[in-house]
Specification:
Blueprint: E1 2-6, H1 11-22, E2 27-31, E3 47-49, H2 55-64, E4 67-72, H3 79-84, H4 86-106, E5 111-115, E6 128-129, H5 140-159, E7 162-167, E8 170-172, H6 187-196, E9 202-204, E10 216-217, E11 219-221, H7 222-237, E12 245-247, E13 254-255, H8 256-267, E14 274-276, E15 285-288, H9 291-296, H10 305-318
Pathway: Carbohydrate metabolism; galactose metabolism
InterPro entries: Epimerase_deHydtase, NAD(P)-bd_dom_sf, UDP_G4E
Cofactor: NAD(+)
Length: about 325
């Protein structure tokens, strides 16, 4: 018995690999290394280099490693860029997921944990999102994640799959000093890169209807996220029922100003962020409740904002 982690050499996927191992689950990682790093996968974890678009490779991996379930993390994850590259986004996230599910069905692998996104909600008209909040994605990325959830639902009906999807907003921090977020689009690496280059980080708008005028969002630690993915896999493996989808959220969120203050403290680099105009479409506050996940998936915000910053900063400094 083992579980396949697609995207297992990426920032989130590599944390999931380690969380599965900590839970005593044998693991194999598959990644095309388009944004991941081979060094992120422990040497004693089988690694297959390739894409989920290669159905034959996926099928062979499932057979060769006696896979019984899949944590599906692989995908094109940049919402803003997806607007400019919709076909690429759909190919990676929709065609890729369909190819993966076909290979699973043909090889009798019917358990799946899908790493989804809170982008499926778009800009909701509520301040705190729950699982049945209406879905209205506003980018090809968000749409592709929602379609991924539909595909899993349909495979439950068509092929007896048991699945769950985990939705979340902004993932930060590091669970291990050798694992870091290398995304050119995420807030933490953008701020770190600016500080290391002597530039001043920027806040987009400080006149929102929030306590300090800046946008409020969920920020969750990657190790907490990975732990709940591993719990979901363990429960599916044991045949325990789970909801089709869970939000992994803080319930209250933090503001961009709070993040900047924590960055200055955690890095030891004092700065006053520049304030730029609002970005079109940015709502004042979007956070998600994690109550259902806390009940079923051992979800908890185990790391403070300061710990999120310091763990990410330690990992970032290791690469120079």
């Amino acid at each position: 018995m083992s579980w396949l982690v697609t995207g297992g050499a990426g920032y989130i996927g590599s944390h999931v690999v380690r969380a599965l191992r900590a839970a005593g689950i044998e693991t194999v990682a598959l990644d095309d290394l388009s944004s991941g790093f081979r060094a992120f996968v422990p040497e004693d974890v089988p690694f297959v280099e390739g894409t989920i678009l290669d159905g034959e490779l996926v099928a062979r991996t499932l057979r060769d490693h006696a896979v019984t379930g899949v944590v599906h993390v692989a995908g094109f994850k940049y919402a803003g860029v997806s607007v400019e590259r919709p076909l690429h986004t759909y190919e990676q996230n929709v065609t890729g997921t369909a190819t993966l599910l076909r290979a699973m069905a043909e090889n009798g692998v019917t358990k799946a944990v899908f790493s989804s996104s809170a982008a499926v909600y778009g800009t909701p008209d509520v301040e705190t999102v729950v699982e049945d909040t209406p879905k209205a994605p506003e980018s090809p990325y968000g749409e592709s994640k929602l379609i991924g959830e539909w595909l899993l639902r349909d495979m439950e009906v068509a092929a007896g799959f048991t699945t769950t999807s985990l939705r979340y907003f902004n993932v930060v921090g590091s669970g291990e000093p050798d694992l870091y977020d290398a995304s050119p689009h995420n807030l933490f690496p953008l701020v770190f890169d600016a500080l290391l280059a002597g530039r001043t980080p920027r806040i987009n708008g400080d006149d929102y209807a929030t306590p300090d005028g800046t946008c409020v969002r969920d920020y969750i630690h990657v190790a907490d996220l990975a732990h709940s993915h591993a719990v979901a896999a363990r429960k599916l493996e044991a045949g325990e029922p789970l909801q089709r989808a869970y939000n992994l959220g803080s319930g209250d969120g933090v503001s961009v100003r709070q993040i900047m203050d924590a960055m200055a403290s955690g890095t030891g680099i004092a700065f006053e962020p520049e304030v730029a105009p609002r970005r079109p479409g940015d709502p004042a506050r979007i956070v998600a409740t994690g109550e259902a996940a806390a009940r079923d998936l051992e979800w908890a915000m185990r790391h403070s904002l300061d710990e999120m910053v310091t763990s990410a900063w330690e990992a970032r400094r290791r690469i120079g």
